[in-house]
Amino acid sequence: MKQIIFFLLLSVTLFAQTNLNKGNVIFLHPDGTGLNAYNAMRILYFGPDGTSNWDRLTNIGLYRGHMEDALTASSNSGATVHAYGVKVKLNAFGLNNDEKIVARSGKKMSIMEEAISKGIKTGLINSGSIVEPGSACFVTGVSRRNQFEEITKQMIDSGVDVILSGGEKWFLPNGTKGFHGEGVRSDNINLIEVAREKGYYIVYTKDELQKIPSSATKLLGIFAEESTFNDVKEEEQKAKNLPNYNPTSPSIAEMLNVAIKFLSKEKKQFFIVAEEEGTDNFSNENNAQATLEALKRADDAIGVALDFYKKNKNTLILTAADSDAGGLSLLGETEIGFPYGKILPARDKNGAPIDGVAGTETVPFKSAPDKTGRQFPFAISWSTFSDQSGGIVSRAIGLNSNLMNGSIDNTDIYKIMYATLFGKLLK
Q1: pLDDT tens figures, 100-133
Q2: Could you give the domains of the chain?
Q3: What is the rounded distance in angstroms from the CA atom of residue 63 to the CA atom of residue 161?
Q4: CA-CA distance, 397 to 315, in Å (whole number)?
Q5: Is the pTM of this model over 0.90?
Q6: Using CB atoms within 10 A of its CB, is residue 382 exposed (0-12), middle (13-18) or buried (19+)?
Q7: How far apart are CA 338 and CA 146, in angstroms?
């Protein structure tokens, strides 16, 4: 009798572990962001004792991000792993060696393609161009990352309900004038017209994004010729009078807020992938002040997701990055030119480049006050212009967020999202 009871209890436990409640998924991907960057952003904007929105995500996973053939991920291979839940090669972009990928589910489709096939509402958001892999890999597959025309075409043909990004140049035929600039497509296809024929309501500015008619059933936002930001070094920004972000473009938080409202208005299940690309691109330029603003914008988007979660507990919010761009570190000691107001040296004693508030050889940053009201000077140092395998920490809150626990593999991002979208915990 005891054996029967034991096996019954075991069966119930296994059933509970593999059959979970379904709900919404909001996957936020501040690209190229390691733990050091989150700490620096928190100190600058919230103070050493402060709490960012990212800090409010309750469950933590220490992220292992190697690829099939490399220790550090590329943006495209990392996104492909998130989209399919299996290891791929470094050059993968929704395909692996030109072959369709068999996902962790056993199906030859990405997690978003499977969601679309099952009637789940979907959204892709990117503060960069539409061709950026962190979002594009979820519904496109190409042999080479630079097949921008094909990536854009596949995005529009994918059936995703909401697409918000930059990249207008890849929608229009070569020489065709658009809202932000001229097209560069060589196939003479006007994908904006194609999108309109497919039922997309199209907007070009953050003001237009706030005025979507209630009758719209699909939404396409094209907010820049390329990216919504100007990803160059501080010195070049100053010389050309360029802001970090284009003022007419919506922030990722504004895009996410509209996407959530748009996709949830019918009270149906939805799946959103939202990437802040500026965190990666500015870091790869070693532009510290712009990187920290980009991460604050990503944190604001996490706040938008948390506001929705407060009233909709059947929602999973999770974050991850696939690599650590630039190897950003905070320097808070006094050996490099503090106190605040004194010009920083161009390099640390070991030769590492140092940034202050406006780049090389400028004054230090100043933290927001700590709990006693004190503010502290600090600088940012860099180790590379490339991506590295840094301290990536993934976090989650909400439905099934307990699956984000301890040491996790990059393939587990898919596993956690899949469990919440489809109610099944894969091996």
Answers
A1: 999 999 999 999 999 999 999 999 999 999 999 9
A2: 22-33+59-323+397-422 (3.40.720.10)
A3: 30
A4: 8
A5: yes
A6: buried
A7: 44
